[in-house]
From TrEMBL, chain A:
Protein name per UniProt: Carbohydrate ABC transporter membrane protein 2, CUT1 family
Record GO biological process: transmembrane transport
Pfam families: BPD_transp_1
InterPro entries named among the record's database cross-references: MetI-like, MetI-like_sf
Classification lineage: Bacteria, Bacillati, Actinomycetota, Actinomycetes, Micrococcales
Organism of derivation: Demequina mangrovi
TrEMBL record, chain B:
Protein name: Carbohydrate ABC transporter membrane protein 1, CUT1 family
Native organism: Demequina mangrovi
Membrane topology: Multi-pass membrane protein
Family annotation (SUPFAM superfamilies): MetI-like (SSF161098)
Subcellular location as annotated: Cell membrane
Transmembrane segment boundaries: 38-61, 98-120, 132-153, 180-203, 238-259, 288-310
Record flagged with keyword Repeat: no
Family note: Belongs to the binding-protein-dependent transport system permease family.
Listed CDD domains: TM_PBP2
Keyword Cell membrane: yes
Residue span(s) of domain ABC transmembrane type-1: 94-307
Length: 281, 319
């Protein structure tokens, strides 16, 4: 075991490499299809035999998707909803998490129990009452309606609490002796010390809301108010297979491209976040 | 977001009590802590109470009425629940959801663990890049994934049936075939999530001390015996977490069903959430859909309680 064996000589290396490369190809293949088909002329997407690489490239599909749905407005809504939910949930979740991690207040056990009970309720089972409530408030089709009900989430609270309890308690005691208020300790001392957790939760909530389909589908009535993910789903659902595939792929590309670029930048942090969230479970 | 809490009953209990000493001083300190604690929790807690807790109760009330969203609802008792458990379509949706969960959970976990073991090897070419690539489907929306796969497997113009036909396999029209539609929507979910679970497994594998493998190897254990005696026990807590997440997401499946099959053919892919959506928002049977929602809630709650008792037991075992 002491002398390093060159990788091609180790038993099973070639097989392991082939297997993992095959898995990578399978993972990336549909994305390649989306990208290529978005630029493929319509007559070639329905030709037989099908070819992955078209003979010419076109931008017609993008024009086609802009004709059918208000792509600009929907992309804007997607950004607003993702940023809005991420922003508010980071602040509200971290405040609750801070209280749970640092403040020895009466009823903390009760709060903990309440949160755990809340976490076991899947949001899909609340669609109807939430729809009725949002209708009552006049929030259907508004950004307020899309963001506010999601401005806090129990999973996020527990995740941030995990990061807070790793920070030494002495930090709070020292700040208190210096006369800092609780708010100042939270905002100036603990939040900067929990950036790894905040980033992880932020990325999670941003991606989750960007990709969410059912929530914006139910809580909006007109195409202008929808997010792009929901817009594409409804475009596809109402057209009953009558829209050319190139057009849906062009829409899909517009919808995934910003996330893929973001992922390229933060992928290390994101993957580590997923891994630690799993370990802490 | 997918995390679950670690319960620390001891920490919670000790938190509420203070440390003794001069109790008058403590009293002021405690009162201050009580106030600031609840003040800090208040904004987030109000959101959860207003938009999770209250609607859960409200859903129960709606489920006891014949509300359509358009009429003035009247009380019908448990009629909706009787229907949810007796009418053929609901039974079908519940069975489909269970079948989906039973198919999806072991498959996605098996594939993810299998690949994690290989990706954990040091002798892999471009290991980091491959891990990132395999994780990629997790950040793509299920909507886009479903649209892309629908195109790829389209029987007339899709690449996959064509490539399979070249090697002599004639694929059926997967999404319009009662037998194949369910495995196909399960496959898309496995494709989308195996990288996510793989990353969690890799982290779990790295937590197993290498000397355990060396000791097992010295004892003459084969690779398979090492897997059973070292890897699986070492992954116990990770495994619990992953299984619960997988089952829970399986029970909430909606997106790719809506895009790829619309619940068909012949309701063979209709899941509970899909039925809640169509009954509640296209057929205007909100009372009935709420009763179905409650069935979903009860299932999730049961899984959650099982998880809670398992993680408590694991903590006891570790202690």
């Amino acid at each position: 075991m002491n002398k390093p064996i060159p990788f091609w000589r180790r038993p099973g290396t070639i097989g392991a490499n082939l297997l993992v490369i095959a898995a990578s190809l399978l993972a990336i293949f549909p994305l390649v299809v989306v990208i290529v088909t978005a630029f493929t002329p319509q007559n070639e997407t329905i030709a037989y035999p099908p070819e992955l690489i078209p003979s010419t490239f076109t931008l017609d599909n993008f024009a086609g998707v802009f004709e059918r749905i208000p792509v600009g407005a929907q992309l804007w809504n997607t950004i607003m909803m993702s940023v809005g939910v991420t922003f508010f949930s980071l602040i509200l979740n971290s405040m609750v998490a801070y209280a749970l991690a640092f403040i020895p207040f009466k009823g903390r056990g009760l709060l903990f129990g309440l949160l755990i009970a809340t976490m076991m309720i899947p949001f899909q089972s609340l669609l109807i009452p939430l729809y009725k409530m949002l209708t009552e408030f006049g929030w259907i089709g508004t950004m307020t309606g899309l963001i506010v009900p999601r401005a806090a989430d129990v999973a996020g609270i527990f995740l941030l609490r995990q990061f807070f309890i790793m920070i030494p308690k002495e930090l709070r005691a020292a700040a208190m002796i210096d006369g800092a208020s609780e708010w100042k300790i939270y905002w100036r001392v603990m939040m900067p010390n929990a950036t790894a957790g905040l980033l992880t939760l932020g990325i999670f909530n941003f991606v989750g809301n960007w990709n969410d389909m059912l929530w914006p589908m139910v809580m909006t009535n007109s195409a202008e108010d929808r997010t792009l993910t929901a817009g594409l789903a409804i475009l596809n659902g109402t057209a009953q297979g009558l829209i050319p595939y190139g057009v849906t792929m062009a829409g899909s590309l517009i919808s995934v491209l910003p996330l893929v670029i973001m992922f390229a930048i933060v992928q290390k942090r994101f993957i580590e976040g997923v891994a630690t969230a799993g370990l802490k479970g | 977001m997918t995390t679950n809490p670690v319960l620390e009953p001891a920490a919670i209990e000790s938190a509420g009590k203070s440390r003794g000493g001069r109790w008058k001083h403590r009293y002021n300190f405690q009162r201050h802590a009580n106030r600031t604690g609840w003040l800090f929790a208040a904004p987030g807690l109000s959101i959860l109470l207003a938009f999770v807790f209250f609607p859960a109760g409200y859903a129960f009330w709606i489920s006891l009425t014949d509300s359509s969203g358009l009429n003035k609802p009247s009380f019908v008792g448990l009629d909706n629940y009787v229907q949810a458990f007796t009418d053929a379509d609901s039974q079908n949706a519940i069975v489909n959801t269970v079948v989906y969960a039973i198919g999806y959970t072991p498959l996605v976990i098996g594939v993810a663990l299998f690949l994690a073991i290989f990706l954990n090897r040091k002798d892999l070419f471009l290991r980091g890049a491959q891990r990132t690539t395999i994780f990629m489907p997790f950040i793509i929306s299920m909507a886009v994934a479903a649209l892309a796969w629908s195109f790829i497997i389209n029987p007339n113009t899709g690449l996959m049936p064509y490539w399979f036909s070249k090697i002599g396999i004639n694929l059926p029209d997967l999404l319009n075939d009662e037998t194949w539609a369910m495995p196909t929507v399960i496959f898309v979910a496995v494709w989308k999530n195996f990288g996510y679970f793989m990353v969690i497994f890799i982290a779990g594998l790295q937590g197993i001390p290498p000397d355990q493998y060396e000791a097992a190897a010295l004892d003459g254990a084969s690779k398979w015996q090492q897997f059973k005696a070292v890897t699986l026990p070492g992954l116990r807590p990770t495994m619990t977490y992953v299984i619960i997440i997988a089952i829970n997401t399986a029970f909430q499946t909606f997106d790719q069903i809506y895009i790829m099959t619309g619940g068909g053919p012949l309701r063979s892919t209709e899941t509970i959430v899909y039925r809640v959506y169509t009954e509640g928002f296209t057929n205007f049977r909100q009372g009935y859909a709420s009763a179905l929602s409650f069935v979903l809630m009860a299932i999730t709650l049961t899984i959650g309680l099982i998880q809670l008792s398992i993680s408590r037991k694991q903590e006891r075992d570790l202690a």
